[in-house]
Amino acid sequence: MPTDVIMPQMGESIVEGTITKWLKKPGDKVQRDEPLFEISTDKVDAEIPSPASGVLQDIKVAEGATVGVNTVVGSIAADGEAAATPKAPAPAPAAPAKKEAAPVVQEAAPAAHVSDEDEHARSSPLVRKIAREHNVNLAQVSGSGLGGRITKQDILDFLDKSQSPAATAAAKPASAAPASKPAAPAAIPGDLVPMTQMRKIIAQRMVESRRTSAHVHCMFQADITSIVKLRNKTKNSFEQRHGTRLTFMPFFVRAAIIALQQFPIVNASLEGESIRYHRNINVGIAVALDWGLIVPVLKNAGELNFLGLQRGIADLGERARNKKLKPEDVEGSTFTITNPGQFGAVFGLPIINQPNSAIMGVGGITKAPLVVTDEDGNDSIAVRSVVNLTLGYDHRLIDGAIADQFMVVVKKSLEDWSEEVG
Predict the structure, then answer these.
(1) Residue 405 in contact with residue 376, Cβ under 8 Å?
(2) Residues with Cβ < 8 Å from 9, sequence gap 6 or more?
(3) What's the average model confidence in pLDDT over 272-296?
(4) 113 assigned to active site
(5) Peptide bond into 86 cis (omega under 30)
(6) How far apart are CA 49 and CA 5, in angstroms?
(7) Catalytic residue at 154?
(8) Mean of per-residue pLDDT scores for the chain
(9) pTM strictly above 0.70
(10) For 113-224, where are the alpha helices, taking DSSP H only?
(11) Which tens digit of pLDDT belongs to each residue from 235-247?
(12) Which of 157, 242, 376, 395 is catalytic?
Protein backbone atom coordinates (compact mmCIF):
# COMPACT_ATOMS: atom_id res chain seq x y z
CA MET A 1 0.00 0.00 0.00
CA PRO A 2 1.24 3.52 -0.76
CA THR A 3 2.31 5.66 2.18
CA ASP A 4 0.26 8.79 2.75
CA VAL A 5 2.09 12.11 2.95
CA ILE A 6 0.29 14.39 5.40
CA MET A 7 0.38 18.03 6.40
CA PRO A 8 2.18 17.85 9.78
CA GLN A 9 1.15 19.73 12.90
CA MET A 10 4.05 22.08 13.57
CA GLY A 11 3.15 22.87 17.17
CA GLU A 12 0.05 22.64 19.36
CA SER A 13 -1.42 25.95 18.19
CA ILE A 14 -0.91 25.26 14.47
CA VAL A 15 -4.11 24.17 12.71
CA GLU A 16 -3.15 24.59 9.04
CA GLY A 17 -0.24 25.08 6.67
CA THR A 18 0.38 26.38 3.17
CA ILE A 19 2.36 24.28 0.70
CA THR A 20 4.82 26.72 -0.83
CA LYS A 21 6.86 24.30 -2.95
CA TRP A 22 7.10 20.63 -3.86
CA LEU A 23 10.74 19.57 -4.03
CA LYS A 24 9.89 16.43 -6.00
CA LYS A 25 7.51 15.78 -8.90
CA PRO A 26 5.32 12.71 -9.45
CA GLY A 27 7.45 9.78 -10.58
CA ASP A 28 10.59 10.98 -8.76
CA LYS A 29 12.37 8.62 -6.40
CA VAL A 30 12.62 9.80 -2.82
CA GLN A 31 14.48 8.57 0.27
CA ARG A 32 13.01 8.46 3.75
CA ASP A 33 13.70 11.76 5.61
CA GLU A 34 14.74 13.50 2.38
CA PRO A 35 13.12 16.96 2.07
CA LEU A 36 9.88 16.47 0.11
CA PHE A 37 7.99 19.77 0.24
CA GLU A 38 8.07 23.19 1.89
CA ILE A 39 5.34 24.69 4.01
CA SER A 40 4.56 28.03 5.61
CA THR A 41 2.64 28.42 8.88
CA ASP A 42 2.01 31.35 11.20
CA LYS A 43 5.05 30.23 13.23
CA VAL A 44 7.75 29.02 10.85
CA ASP A 45 8.57 28.13 7.28
CA ALA A 46 9.89 24.57 7.13
CA GLU A 47 10.96 21.74 4.85
CA ILE A 48 9.00 18.55 5.48
CA PRO A 49 10.84 15.21 5.11
CA SER A 50 9.51 12.21 3.27
CA PRO A 51 7.83 9.64 5.56
CA ALA A 52 9.11 6.71 3.48
CA SER A 53 11.43 5.66 0.67
CA GLY A 54 10.00 4.95 -2.76
CA VAL A 55 8.47 6.89 -5.63
CA LEU A 56 6.28 9.97 -5.28
CA GLN A 57 3.09 8.54 -6.74
CA ASP A 58 0.90 11.63 -6.73
CA ILE A 59 0.50 15.12 -5.37
CA LYS A 60 -2.98 15.80 -4.05
CA VAL A 61 -2.49 19.40 -2.90
CA ALA A 62 -0.92 21.95 -5.23
CA GLU A 63 1.60 24.63 -4.38
CA GLY A 64 -0.12 27.68 -2.94
CA ALA A 65 -2.96 25.74 -1.29
CA THR A 66 -3.63 25.98 2.45
CA VAL A 67 -4.98 22.87 4.17
CA GLY A 68 -5.56 21.68 7.72
CA VAL A 69 -3.08 19.58 9.65
CA ASN A 70 -3.23 15.81 9.02
CA THR A 71 -4.61 16.39 5.51
CA VAL A 72 -3.24 13.88 2.98
CA VAL A 73 -1.28 15.96 0.48
CA GLY A 74 0.35 13.16 -1.52
CA SER A 75 1.37 9.51 -1.54
CA ILE A 76 4.56 7.47 -1.94
CA ALA A 77 4.64 4.05 -3.55
CA ALA A 78 7.25 1.57 -2.38
CA ASP A 79 10.11 0.68 -4.73
CA GLY A 80 8.97 -2.08 -7.09
CA GLU A 81 5.32 -1.58 -6.18
CA ALA A 82 2.97 -1.51 -9.17
CA ALA A 83 1.86 2.05 -8.73
CA ALA A 84 -0.74 3.78 -10.78
CA THR A 85 0.38 6.34 -13.31
CA PRO A 86 1.87 9.24 -11.31
CA LYS A 87 -0.55 12.15 -11.09
CA ALA A 88 0.23 15.82 -10.83
CA PRO A 89 -1.88 17.95 -8.51
CA ALA A 90 -4.90 19.90 -9.60
CA PRO A 91 -4.18 23.61 -9.93
CA ALA A 92 -4.51 25.77 -6.85
CA PRO A 93 -7.94 27.46 -6.57
CA ALA A 94 -6.66 30.74 -8.00
CA ALA A 95 -3.36 32.07 -9.24
CA PRO A 96 -3.08 34.76 -6.53
CA ALA A 97 -3.16 32.03 -3.85
CA LYS A 98 0.11 30.64 -5.12
CA LYS A 99 1.80 34.03 -5.09
CA GLU A 100 0.41 34.76 -1.64
CA ALA A 101 1.83 31.62 -0.08
CA ALA A 102 5.11 31.37 -1.93
CA PRO A 103 8.23 32.87 -0.36
CA VAL A 104 9.48 36.04 -2.05
CA VAL A 105 12.54 34.22 -3.27
CA GLN A 106 10.30 31.94 -5.34
CA GLU A 107 8.67 34.96 -7.01
CA ALA A 108 11.92 36.62 -7.96
CA ALA A 109 12.68 36.72 -11.67
CA PRO A 110 15.42 34.16 -12.44
CA ALA A 111 18.66 35.65 -13.66
CA ALA A 112 19.45 32.55 -15.70
CA HIS A 113 17.84 29.31 -16.85
CA VAL A 114 17.75 26.63 -14.16
CA SER A 115 17.64 23.00 -15.24
CA ASP A 116 15.37 20.34 -13.71
CA GLU A 117 18.47 18.78 -12.20
CA ASP A 118 19.26 22.06 -10.42
CA GLU A 119 15.68 22.62 -9.36
CA HIS A 120 15.42 19.26 -7.63
CA ALA A 121 18.88 19.23 -6.09
CA ARG A 122 19.01 18.94 -2.32
CA SER A 123 19.13 22.61 -1.53
CA SER A 124 17.21 25.43 0.10
CA PRO A 125 15.41 28.23 -1.77
CA LEU A 126 18.25 30.58 -0.83
CA VAL A 127 20.84 28.25 -2.37
CA ARG A 128 18.78 27.93 -5.56
CA LYS A 129 18.44 31.73 -5.72
CA ILE A 130 22.22 32.18 -5.48
CA ALA A 131 22.67 29.50 -8.14
CA ARG A 132 20.29 31.29 -10.50
CA GLU A 133 21.96 34.66 -9.93
CA HIS A 134 25.39 33.26 -10.81
CA ASN A 135 24.33 30.74 -13.47
CA VAL A 136 25.59 27.78 -11.46
CA ASN A 137 24.49 24.20 -12.11
CA LEU A 138 23.94 22.76 -8.62
CA ALA A 139 24.93 19.33 -9.88
CA GLN A 140 28.51 20.68 -9.88
CA VAL A 141 28.37 21.67 -6.20
CA SER A 142 29.28 19.18 -3.46
CA GLY A 143 26.95 19.29 -0.47
CA SER A 144 28.27 19.06 3.08
CA GLY A 145 24.85 18.98 4.76
CA LEU A 146 22.81 16.00 5.90
CA GLY A 147 22.35 13.52 3.07
CA GLY A 148 24.59 15.56 0.78
CA ARG A 149 22.41 18.66 1.09
CA ILE A 150 23.92 21.81 -0.42
CA THR A 151 24.20 24.57 2.18
CA LYS A 152 24.61 28.29 1.61
CA GLN A 153 28.27 28.02 2.61
CA ASP A 154 28.79 25.21 0.06
CA ILE A 155 27.67 27.35 -2.88
CA LEU A 156 29.52 30.42 -1.60
CA ASP A 157 32.70 28.34 -1.35
CA PHE A 158 32.07 27.08 -4.89
CA LEU A 159 31.66 30.64 -6.17
CA ASP A 160 34.74 31.76 -4.27
CA LYS A 161 36.83 29.05 -5.93
CA SER A 162 35.53 30.18 -9.31
CA GLN A 163 37.15 33.57 -8.56
CA SER A 164 34.49 35.54 -10.36
CA PRO A 165 33.69 39.14 -9.36
CA ALA A 166 30.12 38.11 -8.62
CA ALA A 167 31.38 35.31 -6.40
CA THR A 168 33.43 37.72 -4.34
CA ALA A 169 30.37 39.87 -3.75
CA ALA A 170 28.19 36.88 -2.84
CA ALA A 171 30.76 35.49 -0.39
CA LYS A 172 31.15 38.75 1.53
CA PRO A 173 30.61 38.09 5.27
CA ALA A 174 27.41 39.25 6.96
CA SER A 175 29.31 41.86 8.98
CA ALA A 176 30.47 43.64 5.82
CA ALA A 177 28.53 46.65 4.57
CA PRO A 178 26.65 47.02 2.45
CA ALA A 179 25.27 43.46 2.53
CA SER A 180 23.39 41.86 -0.34
CA LYS A 181 19.88 43.23 -0.77
CA PRO A 182 16.98 40.84 -0.10
CA ALA A 183 15.11 39.66 -3.14
CA ALA A 184 12.07 41.67 -4.16
CA PRO A 185 8.93 40.34 -5.85
CA ALA A 186 9.17 40.18 -9.62
CA ALA A 187 6.71 42.92 -10.53
CA ILE A 188 6.38 45.74 -13.02
CA PRO A 189 5.89 49.18 -11.43
CA GLY A 190 2.16 49.73 -11.08
CA ASP A 191 1.34 46.03 -10.58
CA LEU A 192 -0.65 44.89 -7.56
CA VAL A 193 1.20 41.90 -6.07
CA PRO A 194 -0.34 39.82 -3.24
CA MET A 195 1.63 39.73 0.01
CA THR A 196 3.37 36.48 0.87
CA GLN A 197 2.08 34.52 3.85
CA MET A 198 5.11 35.47 5.93
CA ARG A 199 4.81 39.15 4.99
CA LYS A 200 1.15 39.18 6.05
CA ILE A 201 2.07 37.72 9.43
CA ILE A 202 4.93 40.20 9.91
CA ALA A 203 2.64 43.10 9.03
CA GLN A 204 -0.01 41.95 11.46
CA ARG A 205 2.42 41.52 14.34
CA MET A 206 4.19 44.83 13.78
CA VAL A 207 0.91 46.76 13.80
CA GLU A 208 -0.25 44.88 16.89
CA SER A 209 2.99 45.71 18.69
CA ARG A 210 2.72 49.43 17.91
CA ARG A 211 -0.86 49.41 19.16
CA THR A 212 0.03 47.46 22.30
CA SER A 213 3.24 48.99 23.66
CA ALA A 214 4.09 52.61 24.43
CA HIS A 215 7.27 52.68 22.35
CA VAL A 216 10.19 54.83 23.48
CA HIS A 217 13.81 54.62 22.27
CA CYS A 218 17.18 55.65 23.69
CA MET A 219 20.56 55.40 21.96
CA PHE A 220 24.07 54.95 23.36
CA GLN A 221 27.42 54.89 21.58
CA ALA A 222 30.00 52.33 22.72
CA ASP A 223 33.73 52.30 22.00
CA ILE A 224 34.41 48.64 21.20
CA THR A 225 37.96 49.03 19.91
CA SER A 226 39.23 46.40 22.34
CA ILE A 227 36.60 43.89 21.18
CA VAL A 228 37.40 44.51 17.51
CA LYS A 229 41.11 43.93 18.20
CA LEU A 230 40.36 40.82 20.27
CA ARG A 231 38.19 39.34 17.54
CA ASN A 232 40.71 40.10 14.79
CA LYS A 233 43.42 38.48 16.87
CA THR A 234 41.54 35.31 17.82
CA LYS A 235 38.96 34.63 15.09
CA ASN A 236 41.13 32.19 13.10
CA SER A 237 42.24 30.14 16.10
CA PHE A 238 38.68 30.26 17.49
CA GLU A 239 37.27 28.72 14.32
CA GLN A 240 40.02 26.08 14.19
CA ARG A 241 39.44 25.04 17.79
CA HIS A 242 35.64 25.12 17.86
CA GLY A 243 34.52 24.70 14.25
CA THR A 244 32.42 27.87 14.24
CA ARG A 245 33.10 31.45 13.18
CA LEU A 246 33.68 34.12 15.79
CA THR A 247 31.22 36.94 15.14
CA PHE A 248 30.42 40.12 17.03
CA MET A 249 26.91 39.05 18.02
CA PRO A 250 27.82 36.99 21.12
CA PHE A 251 29.61 40.03 22.55
CA PHE A 252 26.40 42.06 22.30
CA VAL A 253 24.25 39.21 23.60
CA ARG A 254 26.55 38.67 26.57
CA ALA A 255 26.56 42.39 27.42
CA ALA A 256 22.75 42.42 27.27
CA ILE A 257 22.54 39.36 29.53
CA ILE A 258 24.71 41.06 32.16
CA ALA A 259 22.40 44.09 32.08
CA LEU A 260 19.24 41.94 32.18
CA GLN A 261 20.53 40.19 35.28
CA GLN A 262 20.91 43.56 36.98
CA PHE A 263 17.60 44.98 35.71
CA PRO A 264 15.10 42.09 35.63
CA ILE A 265 12.24 44.48 34.81
CA VAL A 266 13.66 44.74 31.26
CA ASN A 267 13.34 40.94 31.02
CA ALA A 268 9.73 41.04 32.27
CA SER A 269 6.41 41.31 30.46
CA LEU A 270 2.93 42.60 31.19
CA GLU A 271 0.06 40.18 31.76
CA GLY A 272 -3.11 42.20 32.17
CA GLU A 273 -2.48 44.44 35.18
CA SER A 274 0.34 42.23 36.52
CA ILE A 275 4.04 41.96 35.75
CA ARG A 276 5.58 38.60 34.88
CA TYR A 277 9.23 38.43 35.99
CA HIS A 278 10.71 35.62 33.93
CA ARG A 279 13.00 33.11 35.61
CA ASN A 280 15.12 32.59 32.51
CA ILE A 281 16.69 34.92 29.98
CA ASN A 282 15.56 33.77 26.55
CA VAL A 283 17.09 36.00 23.89
CA GLY A 284 15.37 36.32 20.53
CA ILE A 285 17.85 36.86 17.70
CA ALA A 286 16.27 38.54 14.66
CA VAL A 287 17.34 36.84 11.42
CA ALA A 288 16.80 38.57 8.07
CA LEU A 289 15.81 36.12 5.34
CA ASP A 290 15.44 36.75 1.63
CA TRP A 291 11.72 36.12 2.02
CA GLY A 292 11.08 37.90 5.34
CA LEU A 293 12.16 38.13 8.96
CA ILE A 294 12.06 35.59 11.79
CA VAL A 295 13.15 35.66 15.44
CA PRO A 296 14.45 32.30 16.71
CA VAL A 297 15.09 32.13 20.45
CA LEU A 298 18.28 31.29 22.34
CA LYS A 299 16.81 29.58 25.41
CA ASN A 300 18.39 29.97 28.87
CA ALA A 301 21.03 32.27 27.42
CA GLY A 302 22.02 33.42 30.88
CA GLU A 303 23.37 29.93 31.62
CA LEU A 304 25.61 29.79 28.53
CA ASN A 305 29.29 30.70 28.37
CA PHE A 306 30.67 32.72 25.46
CA LEU A 307 31.29 29.67 23.28
CA GLY A 308 27.78 28.40 23.98
CA LEU A 309 26.35 31.74 22.90
CA GLN A 310 28.31 31.75 19.64
CA ARG A 311 27.34 28.17 18.82
CA GLY A 312 23.70 28.78 19.69
CA ILE A 313 23.49 31.96 17.59
CA ALA A 314 25.14 30.26 14.60
CA ASP A 315 22.88 27.23 14.88
CA LEU A 316 19.68 29.29 15.00
CA GLY A 317 20.75 31.45 12.07
CA GLU A 318 21.69 28.46 9.92
CA ARG A 319 18.47 26.59 10.66
CA ALA A 320 16.40 29.71 10.03
CA ARG A 321 17.97 30.19 6.60
CA ASN A 322 17.53 26.50 5.73
CA LYS A 323 13.94 26.26 7.05
CA LYS A 324 14.88 23.81 9.79
CA LEU A 325 13.37 25.69 12.73
CA LYS A 326 10.64 24.10 14.82
CA PRO A 327 7.76 26.05 16.39
CA GLU A 328 9.40 25.85 19.83
CA ASP A 329 12.49 27.55 18.37
CA VAL A 330 10.56 30.78 17.84
CA GLU A 331 8.58 30.80 21.10
CA GLY A 332 9.30 32.00 24.62
CA SER A 333 11.61 34.98 24.07
CA THR A 334 11.92 37.46 26.97
CA PHE A 335 14.22 39.99 25.24
CA THR A 336 15.17 40.53 21.61
CA ILE A 337 18.29 41.72 19.78
CA THR A 338 18.25 42.83 16.15
CA ASN A 339 21.27 43.74 14.04
CA PRO A 340 20.47 46.27 11.29
CA GLY A 341 24.16 47.23 11.34
CA GLN A 342 24.99 44.18 9.23
CA PHE A 343 23.36 46.01 6.31
CA GLY A 344 25.20 49.27 6.97
CA ALA A 345 22.66 51.05 9.19
CA VAL A 346 24.12 53.53 11.67
CA PHE A 347 21.28 52.75 14.07
CA GLY A 348 17.61 51.76 14.00
CA LEU A 349 14.42 52.26 16.01
CA PRO A 350 13.17 48.66 16.25
CA ILE A 351 9.60 47.65 17.08
CA ILE A 352 9.21 45.55 20.22
CA ASN A 353 8.78 41.82 19.69
CA GLN A 354 5.65 40.99 21.69
CA PRO A 355 5.22 39.98 24.46
CA ASN A 356 8.72 41.31 25.26
CA SER A 357 9.07 44.70 26.88
CA ALA A 358 12.30 45.69 25.17
CA ILE A 359 14.43 45.16 22.07
CA MET A 360 18.03 46.21 21.46
CA GLY A 361 19.18 47.25 18.01
CA VAL A 362 22.87 46.99 17.06
CA GLY A 363 24.13 49.49 14.51
CA GLY A 364 27.09 49.14 12.18
CA ILE A 365 30.61 49.12 13.57
CA THR A 366 32.51 52.09 12.17
CA LYS A 367 35.73 53.98 12.82
CA ALA A 368 35.40 57.49 14.21
CA PRO A 369 37.58 60.14 15.85
CA LEU A 370 36.95 60.21 19.60
CA VAL A 371 38.37 62.18 22.51
CA VAL A 372 40.22 59.73 24.76
CA THR A 373 41.62 60.48 28.20
CA ASP A 374 44.77 58.81 29.52
CA GLU A 375 45.50 57.84 33.13
CA ASP A 376 46.92 61.29 33.84
CA GLY A 377 43.77 63.04 32.61
CA ASN A 378 45.28 64.22 29.32
CA ASP A 379 42.90 64.34 26.36
CA SER A 380 43.75 63.42 22.79
CA ILE A 381 41.91 62.50 19.61
CA ALA A 382 42.18 58.91 18.39
CA VAL A 383 40.54 56.75 15.75
CA ARG A 384 38.32 54.22 17.53
CA SER A 385 35.84 51.49 16.54
CA VAL A 386 32.38 52.54 17.69
CA VAL A 387 28.85 51.15 17.54
CA ASN A 388 25.48 52.78 18.19
CA LEU A 389 23.11 50.73 20.34
CA THR A 390 19.40 51.51 20.51
CA LEU A 391 16.99 50.23 23.15
CA GLY A 392 13.33 50.22 22.24
CA TYR A 393 11.24 49.75 25.39
CA ASP A 394 7.64 49.71 26.56
CA HIS A 395 7.12 52.81 28.69
CA ARG A 396 4.12 51.20 30.36
CA LEU A 397 6.54 48.93 32.18
CA ILE A 398 10.02 50.47 31.92
CA ASP A 399 10.83 54.04 32.94
CA GLY A 400 13.38 56.11 31.04
CA ALA A 401 15.79 56.14 33.98
CA ILE A 402 15.81 52.32 34.13
CA ALA A 403 16.27 52.05 30.36
CA ASP A 404 19.23 54.43 30.47
CA GLN A 405 20.84 52.64 33.41
CA PHE A 406 20.36 49.33 31.59
CA MET A 407 22.18 50.67 28.55
CA VAL A 408 24.98 52.09 30.70
CA VAL A 409 25.68 48.52 31.89
CA VAL A 410 25.63 47.23 28.29
CA LYS A 411 28.01 50.00 27.22
CA LYS A 412 30.40 49.42 30.12
CA SER A 413 30.45 45.65 29.58
CA LEU A 414 31.44 46.15 25.96
CA GLU A 415 34.00 48.89 26.55
CA ASP A 416 35.66 47.08 29.49
CA TRP A 417 35.42 43.58 28.03
CA SER A 418 37.35 41.09 30.17
CA GLU A 419 35.80 37.67 29.49
CA GLU A 420 37.60 34.85 27.74
CA VAL A 421 36.16 34.08 24.31
CA GLY A 422 37.08 30.40 24.41
Answers:
(1) no
(2) 69, 70
(3) 92
(4) no
(5) no
(6) 10
(7) no
(8) 82
(9) no
(10) 116-119, 125-133, 152-162, 165-170, 197-212
(11) 999 999 999 999 9
(12) 395
